[in-house]
Specification:
single chain, alpha+beta, 2 domains, 7-stranded mixed sheet, 4-stranded antiparallel sheet, 12 helices, 11 strands
Length: 301
């Protein structure tokens, strides 16, 4: 299947508390992916949200370094079980994968096996569950169908803004722009190639590099500890800082220095994570001559 030409649609299911569930679907197929942040699940879900998530399917629980792949005849009920039991208390985002034709028990076994295998091969996250090899026999009954489902799910996960690319290996090679990028993006990536950008601000520092998949914060970046709950007044800003900081969970030493390279989808997110306050990465990160990322974007270098 040529996934490059598949068109996707997006719907938003909101509730009165401001939380929303984002629904991604493939127009030519019946696979649906629902992306749900943890704070939404912990709020009072609307009737529409409950109906959307009370379906059979595969689900993925994830934070910035761990992932768990499971299945259920009622995904929302299973997530509520995890909340009650506390056995998956580490996750900060959840994905539900459903199908309009309703997955059978065989389908769920096959897809759980396939998703586990793909996620393990990618090595991007530490996979928390142990695979049941007996489920491979269900996958082998119709490999072509299950591989098509997987291709569509992976397409949707990769299209989600700041989504968790559970099934893709991290590529830290120098950026090479795909053929379908715009001329402007191609030019910018060429200007950024092989360059290191630095930031020293408010007691923190770091080095940033553009790679194929995004922005790589290099090991050894210095973060600070700030009481942003009292420092920041805007509630939406607080949520943004919280989720940016989550990228650094378990990746800081006792001196608040990063212990490994960390991939981000924008230059602003690592700056926010290090500083624990709102920041514009395009103006904060600078090259050895003091030129900002925005200077490169504008061609002023």
């Amino acid at each position: 299947m040529d996934t490059q030409n598949i068109k996707t649609t997006v719907n938003i299911y909101s509730n009165s508390t401001g939380g929303s569930i984002t629904h991604y679907s493939v127009r030519e197929w019946t696979v649906d992916v629902y992306a749900v942040q943890r704070f939404v699940l912990e709020s009072k879900l609307s009737k529409e949200q409950k109906e959307a998530l009370s379906q059979s399917g595969i689900y993925i629980l994830v934070n910035e370094e761990q992932a768990y792949i499971g299945q259920s005849q009622n995904i929302l009920k299973r997530w509520q079980d995890h909340f009650r039991d506390g056995d998956k208390d580490w996750f900060d985002c959840a994905y539900a994968i459903t199908d309009l034709r309703k997955f059978s028990a065989t389908d769920l076994n096959a897809l759980e096996y396939l998703f586990w295998e793909k996620a393990t091969e990618a090595g991007r996250f530490e996979i928390e569950n142990v695979n049941d090899i007996n489920k491979k026999s269900d996958y082998l009954k119709d490999e072509n169908f299950y591989n098509i489902v997987f291709s569509n799910v992976n397409l949707l996960l990769n299209s989600i803004y700041r989504g968790h690319r559970v099934f893709d290996k991290i590529n830290t090679e120098n950026t090479q722009t795909p053929n379908n990028n715009s001329q402007e993006e191609t030019s910018l990536n060429e200007r950024l190639q092989d360059k290191i950008f630095k930031m020293e601000q408010s007691g923190c520092s770091g080095q940033l590099k553009k790679v194929k998949e995004g922005w790589l914060l290099l090991k050894g970046a210095q973060a600070i500890k700030r009481d942003y709950e009292n420092f920041v007044k805007n509630e939406n800003a607080k949520k943004g800082i919280y989720y940016s900081r989550a990228y650094l969970n378990n990746k800081l030493d006792e001196n608040l220095k990063t212990t490994e390279d960390i991939l981000f989808s924008s230059p602003s997110t690592p700056a926010v994570a290090l500083m624990q306050q709102n920041a514009n990465g395009w103006t904060i990160w600078k090259d050895e001559n003091g030129k900002t990322l925005d200077d490169y974007r504008q061609g002023n270098f």
